[in-house]
Amino acid sequence: MADDDKQSExxxxxxxxxxxxxxxxVMGKVNETLAAAEKAIGDRMDGLAxxxxxxxxxxxxxxxxxxxxxxxxxxxxxxxxxxxRPTEIVLSKADARDVRKYREARKQADEAGVPLRIDRxxxx
Length: 124
Fold this sequence. Notes:
mainly alpha; two-stranded parallel sheet; 124 residues
């Protein structure tokens, strides 16, 4: 029995001595892992922000230049030929989802006696 008590005391003393060092080593590794994860997440977020800005820029440029000069001249020529009356009222797909904008465009088309066309952005 005395040997069991002695072993138990030695084991308890060993555990008490090693616990702070073991805790320090584990916490160091956890902190390293967290720092690496934070850096990786930060890098990914920066990359996402850059890609988002790039895509929004492309979208903005594509909307600005969606009609070629020839298309714009043809539309203006058609409007002049009809004495300034539009040949059709065009509403974007996004605006068509807005009930107020859709009703206003429908009213303008009815008053002008021309069709209302929804531009779905199809390249066909």
